[in-house]
Amino acid sequence: MAGSEPWTIRQALIPTADRGFCKGDIRIRGDKIEEIRLDAPTREGDSPRSIVADGMVALPGLVNAHVHSHGVLSKAVVEGFPLEVWSHYAKAGRELMSEEDVRYACLLASVELMRAGVSTVLDHPYYDRRRLDACAKAWGETGLRVVVAPSIADKGMLESIGVSSGDDSAPGPMEEDPAGLCESFARDWSGAFDGRLRVMYGPSAPHRCSDGLLRRVADGSSRSGLGVHLHLLETRTQARICRQSYERGVVRHLDSLGLLNPRTSLVHCVWLDPEEIEVIARSGASVVHVPASNLLLGSGIAPVKSMVRAGVNVCLGTDGPNCGGSLDLRDSMRLALLLHRVTEGDYEDWPSARSVFQLGTRNGAYALGLDAPAPLGVLREGAKADIALFDLRNKPEFVPNNDLLLQFILAGSVECETLVVDGEVIYTREGGPARFEEAEIMETAGRLGTDLIRRSRALYDGAERVRRLLHAVAAKDT
Ligand SMILES: [Zn+2]
Predict the structure, then answer these.
(1) What is the CA(297)–ligand 1 centre distance, in A?
(2) Rounded to the nearest whole angstrom, what is the distance from the C-alpha of residue 68 to the centroid of ligand 1?
(3) Residue closest to 126 by CA, chosen among 211, 207, 69, 209
(4) Contact yes or no for 423/28 (Cβ under 8 A)
(5) Pairing state of beta strands 424-428 and 432-433?
(6) I want to staple 105 with a disulfide (CB 3.0 to 4.6 A). Which of 60, 72, 371, 422 is the partner?
(7) Residue 123 C-alpha to ligand 1 middle, in angstroms?
(8) What is the mean pLDDT of residues 231-242?
(9) Could you report the per-residue pLDDT of 35-51, keeping only the tens digit for each?
(10) To which H or E segment does residue 329 belong?
(11) Ligand 1 is a single-atom ion; what residues have CB below 5 A from it?
(12) How far is the CA of 321 from the centre of ligand 1 (A)?
């Protein structure tokens, strides 16, 4: 349902600021929530079109603020490597992706996102312009709200960690003007699909980019207002390299280049020191916490509580499914709720279900610059009508219903019943995605993925050679 005629979600459980969940109706007009009426049913005839959501909970659509669509077809190809080794296998799995592979990777990802109730996603892909166009078109097909931050870099992957080898290559296609790639892509696609597609700069990470490139991104961003999305201090190795490379530390270095401001989202931030947390907090930049990936690659545990205490806007992402395991943001919420209890001494300071839910919704919308002019990530009159309905009937996880939000985060494997973006129903559990045929996507993506891995065999062999080289370098260092 979409258009200017109002329609209503009737009798859903709706989160309120002070009364927990209350039964009520949500009236939607165009892309916004026009009215939320609690406890009093909408009068018949107010809006003839409606979804009866009795027994369902209505939540703001979740915001997955860090995904790599290029990793969708190469999930679970390798297991158990740290990032510095893993990234060479990841590159091997994306180098030969065709435009068709890119399209099916995005559509397949969208099915996984929709089933989890994710309505907004940031994609950070290493593609050349041709494949970026295929990526934008595919996301546009889905109806999801999407930010694409093309990954750019101008240093070799080995060079960036201080290893010299003839086998070196950049993490993505080398462009003559990488920042210009983001800008021309933004000119052509930002605001497309009724404003649901946006574009950001995506410098891969400070140590993978020259200062010239980072400065160019900072200048472009302040001129155009485009956001900047980059990985930062993900691993212990990166922390060491950054300490050696930047006299005042990498965070102050980014600040001095003009890259820390509210338009910037910094991904991972596992190895920040307390002073760096203060600098980020003062700058207004956001941090994307990606706990599943940090565990899978053995990167570490980000100091999320310290960041939140300092006032940093922290949000959540899953990473690509080849390093985070899934695109289901509820996994990240569960880990964010549980993980920091291990490192946080004072139990009174443990994260709450409510605070973690905010990381996965409102904070993500802010980080991606999508919270204005209309709020996003909250159910409120005047906010964007991005809504996920979950049917709680006959679900043992919700019997008895004692604390709906806590139960949702701890045991929330329930598939989304209906997903609404901009007032349009883009997915139902019964019918699948509204805009494309799910069965065909699953079947073709599976076939293309298997073929891609087979075609990439020589590249995986190259990654294996790099793995042995890095192992030898590490052995020499110790
Ligand atoms: Zn990433």
Answers:
(1) 11
(2) 6
(3) 69
(4) yes
(5) antiparallel
(6) 72
(7) 9
(8) 94
(9) 999 976 656 556 678 99
(10) helix 329-343
(11) 319
(12) 10
- For domain 7-60+379-433, the CATH class is mainly beta
Distances (CA, A) of 426 to 157, 388, 389, 402, 429: 39, 10, 12, 31, 10
Fold equal for 7-60+379-433 and 62-367: no
Tell me how far the alpha carbon of residue 77 lies from the centroid of ligand 1, in angstroms.
17
Q: Among the listed ranges 167-176, 256-265, 270-279, 455-464, which one has the minimum average pLDDT value?
A: 167-176
Region 187-206: mean pLDDT is 97
Q: Separation of 56 CA from ligand 1 center, angstroms?
A: 33
Alpha helices, H only, 81-226: 83-94, 99-115, 129-142, 178-189, 211-224
Q: If you measure from the C-alpha of residue 3 to the centroid of ligand 1, how many angstroms do you get, rounded to a whole number?
A: 36
Q: What is the pLDDT of residues 21-78, one digit of tens each?
A: 999 999 999 999 999 999 766 565 566 789 999 999 999 999 999 999 999 999 999 8
* Cα angle 124-244-249, degrees, rounded to a multiple of 5: 65
Q: What is the mean pLDDT of residues 2-14?
A: 87
What are the structural domain ranges in the chain? 7-60+379-433, 62-367
Separation between Cα atoms, residue 334 and residue 62, nearest integer Å: 13
Buried b (16+ CB within 10 A) or exposed e, 133-151: bbbbbbbbbbbbbbbbbbb
Q: What is the distance in A from the centroid of ligand 1 to the CA of 1?
A: 34
How many A from CA of 323 to the centre of ligand 1? 8
C-alpha of residue 395 to centroid of ligand 1, in Å: 34
When the pLDDT of each residue in the chain is averaged and rounded to a whole number, the result is: 93
* Least confident range of 70-84, 89-103, 124-138: 70-84
Cα–ligand 1 centroid distance for 271 (angstroms) = 15
Say how many Å lie between the CA of residue 58 and the centre of ligand 1.
30
Domain 62-367 has CATH 3.20.20.140: yes
Q: Is 428 helix (H, G, I), strand (E, B) or coil?
A: strand
Residue pair 160/241 in contact (Cβ under 8 Å)? The answer is yes
